Amino acid sequence: MISARNPRRRSNGNKMSSSLNTRRKRASVYFPLILTFLLSCFSQSGFSQESVLYSTSAEQKFATALSLYDRSQFDSAAVLFLDLSNTPGHHRQSAALIMAAKSLFRAGKYAQARAELDHFLAKGGLFQRRQKRGWSSFTADAYFTRALIDAAEDKVVSSILNLDSAQYFSPARKLENDIDSLTWFISHRLVQGLQADSILYAVSGLQNQRVRNIVYVQLVSGLLSRGDLQQAKRILSGIKRDALPSWLRTVYDTIEQGLATAKVAKVGILLPLSTSEKFVSRAAQELLEGIQLAVELARDCCDSNPPGNSGEDKQLPSAPHYRAPGATWFINLDVRDTRHDGNHAVNEMEKLAADSAVIFVLGPMFSDEVRSVASLASSAGLALISPTANEPSLASSGKTVFLTNPDDQMKIEALVQFAVRDLHDSLFAILAPDITNDRAPPERSVIPDLTDRVSIFTKSVAKAGGRVVATERYDPANGDLSQQFRSLEASRKQFPMQALYVPVSTSDEIEIVVSQLAYYGWKVQLLGSDEWNNLSALYAQRKYAAGVVFPSDSYLADSAELNHVRKLYEARTHKVLSRFVLYGYDTMKAALRALSNSDGTRSGFLLALQKLPHVKGVHNDICFLGTQVNHSVQILQFTGEDIVRLVPWIVGGMHDSETKR
């Protein structure tokens, strides 16, 4: 490479270009269009005539070649421009050589274009009117064109060095603006591909302050987007604002304001990412993907536009952040694998609790793991937010434990409150399976504690002003419920039951229950547990199961947010959006809302979480109402064709016609 000032100075650029080739990200798809746009704009601005013998024929031939260039006939234009540049003694010789190089570049002949420019620079700008240190007035444009070629070949550092040379030769105002624009975009790619120290080394030899400042501002912007606030502040402090061009001062002020309000939040993640249980590890990975997606969608776009650009091209920052009123939070996820083992979960929780930078923890997935780490979290004053655990009274295991998935007690209370207030039922019977946890299905760690469910239902009915008049248990393995229905029938003669609660342990029991309900002629309102939320099982028994009402922690109502989340997730992962993705997404969304209302400390976050206002989620809303458990429950019904939502119920909240949606 030839340098106008110091040919040896290019060695640093070559070394850094080699390093960049192994580390840079894939070039932005819009970048070649930017190069083409800048080049075409400049080519149409015309060239000054040089102070040598004026040639009418040369002027006409130059105009013809320029017309071919403007019509994108670059090969034909290059032939005419080269012929003119090789004919000495006329006023268009230097301009013709520069345009020949531009034409070759636009035709994709980079090596030949570079060779013509190197020939021009080796001759000191040919034999025309000279400006700085004996160089032609077209020298700046030669370096700018060489920078375009380097950029097209992804030689980012070399392109920056050529732009530095172009600015050194006092370009005209139009070319100076083009150099600014290209420098801005090239330095953005430089920041994407190299670490800060490597960039500082790469540009250490730049002699033009204007180019150097553009690179530094882009570097600070990149460091800010990554959450490296300390180094960003250090580099920004070395930039003199008054020395910046007017358009760059605006960018500088925005970055300075961002640094003043920026904060870093470290979030611990406890999930069973590696386990022999494929369902569990897959669900954990989907939870993590939902958490990451929530942070990404909450962040603002980082403007990477040069002066004069319309603003259509924007790049997301390279590190997740969440912009809240008054502050920008940069989220650093510290992901820990519990391996679905309580002891390992404790070990990982100890590490998170000992790290003072960790503000809160998301996880674990399972209730038993939550219990094992709850005391550690409480002792450290660290909020522990589980997106999926739902055992009754689990929150009582630690004062800092929060459940964004409503537990069994909350779901049963919601079902009872709805039955009493909206269905006007007051006399209930219970038909529950009598089982233990030794036959858990693969998708569940444990069978729900049906004794607790029966107890919770009975207490909830009494609290709501109703009464449970009969309770019967059955063996799901037997399938014969004749004895249970005889007992229930005897009770019904004494008490006119209005509803029957059947908390099945798995959806496989639906067929057993509804078929015998029909056989014995029971026509009462059927209430179920969330295991009834299985459309295929219900549809198979649609003749008998139609009308059953049951609670759920999830219902996907069509919304712009759901469609956006689904589209983005499926495009990136090539997987179908699952409920576990949405569990993670909505939990992190609520946590970010609490973070924005906190002072960034563990105690401040806990206080904000306790006072968290109603958060509208995609799969379910999150509403703690000053407690540690989500009070939002979806009340669903099977119509005989589909499962529909009757109402989103807030336990202990107000319910009227406006809440039904």
Your description of this structure?
The chain is an alpha/beta fold and 661 residues long. Helices cover 50% and strands 12% of the residues. It contains 25 helices and 13 strands. It has helices at 10-23, 31-43, 56-70, 74-85, 93-106, 110-122, 139-152, 156-168, 173-193, 196-202, 209-226, 229-237, 246-261, 278-298, 342-354, 367-379, 408-421, 450-463, 482-494, 510-519, 535-540, 542-545, 560-573, 579-596, 602-610, and strands at residues 262-271, 321-324, 327-337, 358-362, 383-386, 401-403, 427-433, 467-474, 499-502, 525-528, 549-552, 632-638, 643-650. The strands form 3 sheets. Strands 2-3-1-4-5-6 form a 6-stranded mixed sheet, with helices on both faces. It has a 4-stranded parallel sheet with strand order 8-7-9-10, sandwiched between helices.
